[in-house]
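Put briefly, the fold is written as integer tokens. The lines below illustrate.
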Amino acid sequence: MAKGNGKRYEESFKIETVKYISENHKSVAQVAREVGVNENTLHGWMKKYGQQPEIKAVQSFSSEGAALKALQKEMRDLKEENEILKKAMHYFAKSPR
């Protein structure tokens, strides 16, 4: 038995569809109906293209609380890195050449 109907889609269409799902927080099933693509095919595209940097960049946080938490973590990390750099600067400034 042959698999599928052999319909081929452009890679750019696949990527744009995955971006659309990520940006609009719509279900795969809903978008599959909207664009006329089999739901399982769309799940495959999500798996294949969902981790690409341009896709991950458009994925937004599910809530303001999650966004705030992520920003606070980033701020803590940056402060820690800044302290390490200050200590290194003092260490190298004291050491004779």
Remarks:
- The chain has two domains: 8-60, 63-97.
